[in-house]
User: Which sequence fits this backbone?
């Protein structure tokens, strides 16, 4: 049986203790001396430095047949190794070290980042996921803070309506510098906005009534009158937490997004859409995004299958970018005249509603909050129209 060298190296860099058949590439993984770029004519596995290990992984991954034999767990080992290298090998000194010693123009951290991107592409194909062009998977690994990574969550209260019964879904993604508790609070605010005396036809919420229910509608109203109207106290919302990493890292991520690079939240947005359309192939989805969240929605839409994205409507509140209306069913951007964030993408300005700041909106700060009274009526109106139509 032929030994796959890429599987071998994946096993060697794993946390578990390698067996006698496995080369011990990282016998001294904590030793700073390992992080060197010395060149050796005849290399044995036990003598490989971090730089040489990365070069070997990169070379082996160019052979598709070898990559196909590596399982998901082994790719996880390789990913964790690359993340460890990036955390230890970042910075100008590492770059200069390789430049002078090897004539290389990339640091160990940079090479690990390239490999990580390649691994992510391969795993996407293995799992039949939609790949993201210009995806930067290492950003969140390096910058994850006390709020944890970007992730999905649900807002489901018992007295709120689950619109999946009528093949409809509602989503939300927050902007920068939002702790998870505040992002979730915004999603709860969105979910509860319909609870302010929103009345809809019962048949709108229950189109697939039982035969017994339909018979009740045939009984004369003076004998029995079925309830034809319902008050909605709230709706279920699928949320994507766009993780906060600190002001400078968040601004860097926004800059990446403006330049066309994708980070993890865009993939999470696609994840909630995938789950929804898997259960509701003919469904409609209403996506709310706030501030930087519009960047992630924009990128997710640009990579999403056209037949599905045409069934996604987008409501962007105080967005920092404008979404192409050709990439979704419908999009509307609401901006406050006292906010400046939306001017960063002024060349793409389309489908915009300019609002005068509410008298109770923040006076000293830009009118940029998702829960600003300036945007309340607009958010509620879009919810009502989506539920009723």
Assistant:
């Amino acid at each position: 049986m032929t030994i796959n060298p890429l599987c071998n190296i994946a096993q060697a860099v794993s946390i578990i203790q390698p067996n006698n058949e496995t080369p011990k590439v990282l016998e001294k993984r904590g030793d700073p001396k390992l992080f060197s770029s010395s060149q050796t004519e005849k290399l044995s596995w036990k003598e490989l430095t971090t730089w040489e290990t990365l070069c070997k992984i990169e070379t082996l991954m160019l052979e598709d047949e070898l990559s196909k034999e590596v399982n998901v767990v082994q790719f996880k080992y390789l990913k964790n190794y690359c993340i460890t290298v990036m955390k230890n090998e970042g910075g100008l000194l590492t770059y200069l070290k390789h430049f002078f010693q090897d004539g290389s123009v990339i640091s160990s951290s940079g090479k690990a980042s390239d490999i990580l991107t390649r691994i992510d592409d391969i795993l996407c194909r293995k799992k039949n996921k939609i790949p993201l062009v210009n995806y930067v998977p290492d950003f969140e690994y390096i910058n994850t803070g006390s709020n944890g990574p970007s992730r999905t969550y649900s807002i489901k209260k018992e007295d709120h309506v689950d619109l999946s019964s009528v093949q409809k879904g509602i989503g939300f993604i927050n902007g920068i510098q939002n702790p998870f508790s505040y992002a979730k609070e915004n999603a709860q605010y969105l979910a509860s906005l319909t609870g302010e005396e929103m009345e809809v036809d019962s048949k709108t919420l229950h189109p697939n009534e039982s035969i017994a229910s339909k018979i009740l509608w045939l009984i004369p109203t003076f004998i029995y009158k079925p309830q034809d109207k319902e008050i909605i106290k709230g709706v279920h919302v699928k949320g994507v937490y766009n993780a906060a990493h600190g002001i400078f890292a968040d601004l860097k991520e926004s800059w990446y997004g403006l330049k066309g690079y994708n980070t993890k939240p865009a993939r999470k947005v696609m994840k909630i859409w995938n789950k929804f359309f898997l259960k509701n192939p003919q469904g409609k989805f209403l996506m709310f995004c706030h501030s930087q969240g519009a960047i992630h929605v924009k990128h997710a839409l640009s990579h999403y299958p056209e037949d599905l994205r045409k069934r996604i409507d987008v409501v962007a509140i105080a967005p920092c970018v404008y979404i192409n209306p050709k990439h979704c069913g419908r999009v509307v951007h609401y901006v406050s005249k006292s906010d400046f964030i939306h001017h960063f993408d002024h060349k793409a300005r389309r489908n915009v509603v300019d609002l005068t700041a509410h008298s109770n909106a923040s006076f000293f700060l830009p009118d940029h909050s998702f829960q600003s009274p300036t945007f309340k009526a607009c958010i509620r109106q879009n919810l009502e129209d989506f539920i009723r139509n």
In short: Residues 358 and 373 are 6 Å apart (CA to CA). The longest strand covers residues 284-290.
